[in-house]
Amino acid sequence: MCLAIPGRIAEITDPSEITRRGIVDFEGIRKSVNLAFVPDAKENDYVLVHVGFAITRIDESKARQVFESLRELEALDELEPPGVSEPELEPETETL
Amino acid sequence: MKYLDEYRDGEAVRRFADAIRKITTRPWTLMEICGGQTHSIVRFGLDELLPEQISLVHGPGCPVCVTPVELIDKAIEIASHPKAILCSFGDMLRVPGTRGDLFSAKANGGDVRFVYSPLDALDIARKNRYRQVVFFAVGFETTAPANAMAVYQAHREGIENFSLLVSHVLVPPAMEALLSAADNRVQGFLAAGHVCAIMGEEEYKPIADRYSVPIVITGFEPLDIMEGIHICVKQLETGLSLVDNQYARSVRKEGNVHARRMIEEVFEVIPRKWRGLGTIPQSGLGLRGDYKAFDAEERFSLSKISAEESTECIAGEILRGVKKPHQCSAFGNRCTPDKPLGAPMVSSEGACAAYYRHRLITV
Ligand code: SF4
Known about the structure:
The structure holds 2 protein chains of 2 kinds.
Chain A: E1 5-14, E2 21-26, E3 29-34, E4 46-50, E5 53-57, H1 65-79
Antiparallel strand pairs in A: 1-2, 1-4, 2-3, 4-5
Chain B: H1 10-23, E1 28-34, H2 35-43, H3 46-49, E2 54-61, H4 63-66, H5 69-79, E3 84-88, H6 102-107, E4 112-114, H7 118-127, E5 132-139, H8 144-157, E6 162-169, H9 171-179, E7 188-192, H10 193-199, H11 204-211, E8 215-218, H12 222-237, E9 243-245, H13 257-266, E10 267-274, E11 278-287, H14 296-299, H15 315-319, H16 343-346, H17 351-359
Parallel strand pairs in B: 1-2, 1-7, 3-4, 3-5, 5-6, 7-8, 8-9
Antiparallel strand pairs in B: 6-11, 10-11
Bound molecules: iron/sulfur cluster.
């Protein structure tokens, strides 16, 4: 029900305030979408679309955050004192 | 698809699961609010990757599931009116009322149309000036601005044959109702990302403080959910109860001010009845002031219709997170997506339907 799909604004077709509209591209599928709630979104910006309305602009600068926090978590782990180091795997020798 | 696929990376999901395992020392019960999150968790088996101490319970986050039976009956009543066209989102098609569903109302000759957007219903009203066009406005805060906009435009253009059957519910009052129930088990929340994209963070701070629960605004993709759980567990393990935002790419602190302004223009906060939870004060939206003229319940004199829920369906306990779908005796036998007894089996985001589609073999 609260499903919202990310798409790229390909074109603004109606710039007026209440009926602001544009064509949003969902990787090939294009739909006319109401843009009244994202007045500062421009062409090529990504928006989340729900029941024919863009409800928010996706902030490109925050989009990688989840990967960065994962990397930070793992970097912290590496700082911990090392336990018993695992032996390196020997390549299995083939028996003839 | 950009902004979707990258958050489904299985390797990164597993690395998050490891990180969660490392910090978990005690059992914790978390609730995801939104049905979209429930669907992702069950579909990608995220709960099965978590340490045993973490249990996820599925919250009331599916507006279709919490729409009371009597509103379905009212929609069916409107659909049977010869001069009316009832428009609805497709999700409502098979939700059972006391006497059938919208699908059967359509089969019986009612003019029921499934639309993608409330603006499509408004267009139908523009093109059928001699018919009464009613839009069944179901939803959380996410959908409220769109529905408000349809009424706002109808009012501005003087479209008199358009009205709304309103069944709008709000998330924070439902969280409070759950937390203050005697059988509550929830210790932390993953809040619904798209609801917060509209409403922002501020409503959650008083709840986190009053009930000492961490509330993490979370997205819908597997990585979002795993990170949301990690943040929530970390807070629980260190005794914190803060509002945090995992979904910052889509959720600003203040939400979407333009959308909020439209909600406030058209709707006011009222008590609402929730399927399975009963009436919760200040938990819904109704039309305000001049916009009351667009209320279908008034136009069709429907306020007298009331109905009770089926006794076999334990939707109430499912929606409060007290029971899981397979603990219902009707699950998978008398109740299936083709012949649902209760709404959580109907909606694709309902917990029962999610378990039926992805878990039937294992339960
Ligand atoms: S399985 Fe069916 S009857 Fe049981 S709780 Fe779910 S919807 Fe209700």
